[in-house]
Structures are given as C-alpha cells and as structure tokens.
Design a protein that fits this description.
Elements: H1 2-26, H2 33-54, H3 62-86, H4 93-123, H5 133-143, E1 148-158, E2 161-169, H6 175-193, E3 197-203, H7 214-217
Helix pairs in contact: 1-3, 1-4, 2-3, 3-4
C-alpha cells in the first residue's frame, strides 16, 4: 500500500510539473542559472550517495524498490537540471528548462506506472508475473512421476512471497513415504520457482473436487 501511494504521488507531481512546463513553453521566462546549478549539484551528490546505500538492500520488497526508484529518478533529474543550468544564460535556456521538466516527468510517469501495476497485483493477490502455472505443473509431473498434479493455484501474498496450493495424486506407500514425497516437492518448489509456502493435498483415488461448482461456471 505504501509503495502504491508513493507511486501515485509521483505521478501526481509529474502531472503538475508537466502542466507548469507547458505554461513556461508558451510564455518563456528567465532562468536563474547559478542558483539552479548549485541546488542541482547538491541534490545529485546526495541522491547518488543514497542510491549506492539503498542498492545493497533487498529489491524484492516493493517499498525498497519504490524508494530506490525514487532516488534514481531524482539523481537523473538532478543531472539533467545541471546540464540545463549550464546553458541557462544562453538564448535557448528559457525553453530548455521546461523541456527538461517534461522529459523528467515522462520518465517518472512510466516507471511509477509500472510500480503501481505491480503493487495492485500484490494487493489483489494475482498470479506472480512470469510464473506459468501450466509449465510449473508439467515440471512437477515430470520430476515426480508417476505422481500427478492438478488444481494447482499460485498467487502473490506479499513482496517476493508466493503461495501455492495443489492436489497431488500419489501411488502406493505409507504415511512416512507420502510425507517424504511432499517434502521433496516443497524443496523443488523452493529451489526452482522460489515458492516457499505450499499447501499440498495428497490423494490416492479420483479427486472429489474435479467437478467445477455450477455457480463458478456462470462467471
């Protein structure tokens, strides 16, 4: 939720800056180059230092990624402002300033939009991006034949946290053997697909839940 709010605020600020930049393009105004250069250089140094520090932390967390993204954009923006400040005294300085603002705003909207999409997917517990459940099921069938997997569902419950449920039809063996097979399945899920929370329902006969409820068919 925090990452979503952060990204939404970035988009809102980019829109406001863009509106002001368009107004400046329509009515050019003089730019105070020395003040702009001093502030931009200070901001660039501070943002680069923060990026280097934050880059060592876990990037699966969308809040960390949100802060990291914010700092990278600020560093990029500061660098662009430094370049604009150096030419502020020239004839093109009055329109380069708003043009740079539009460029920075567009970059912010694109990257923040991606973060909004990822945050929403986590909040609605959507299937993880890049995870093909059909391929995962086929991989499990091949690795643990003659066991068969069905009713396989995976969803995102938090940053870097994927949950999975599945029915597993097993052949022969006692309770100890079943538990060993389930443990091996969980180990493979963690190692190959980074799924560390799996709820597995072992079966011997035909699954009682093969039929889809009528109220689900209508949707």
């Amino acid at each position: 939720m925090a990452a979503l709010v952060n990204a939404a605020v970035l988009v809102g600020l980019a829109v406001l800056v863009g509106r002001e930049a368009i107004e400046r393009l329509r009515h050019p105004a003089a730019v105070e180059g020395r003040t702009m250069l001093a502030v931009a250089l200070l901001a660039f140094v501070a943002n680069v230092a923060a990026v280097l520090l934050l880059g060592r932390h876990e990037k699966d967390d969308v809040n960390v990624r949100s802060a990291f993204l914010h700092l990278v954009q600020d560093a990029f923006s500061s660098l662009v402002v430094v370049a604009v400040a150096l030419v502020a005294g020239t004839g093109s300085g009055s329109w380069l300033d708003p043009a740079a603002s539009l460029l920075i705003g567009a970059a912010v909207v694109v990257s923040a939009g991606r973060l909004i999409w990822e945050s929403v997917r986590i909040l609605v517990e959507a299937a993880p991006s890049g995870l093909d459940v059909a391929q995962l099921t086929a991989g499990l069938d091949a690795a643990f034949a003659p066991a068969r997997f069905h009713h396989v569902h995976a969803w995102t419950v938090g940053p870097g946290q994927v949950a999975l449920t599945a029915h597993v039809r097993l052949e022969g063996g006692g309770l100890d053997d079943v538990e060993r097979q389930l443990a091996a399945i969980r180990k493979l899920l963690a190692e190959r697909w980074e799924i560390h929370h799996a709820t597995l329902e072992p079966e011997r006969e035909r699954c009682s839940g093969d039929e889809v409820p009528e109220e689900w068919k209508a949707r």
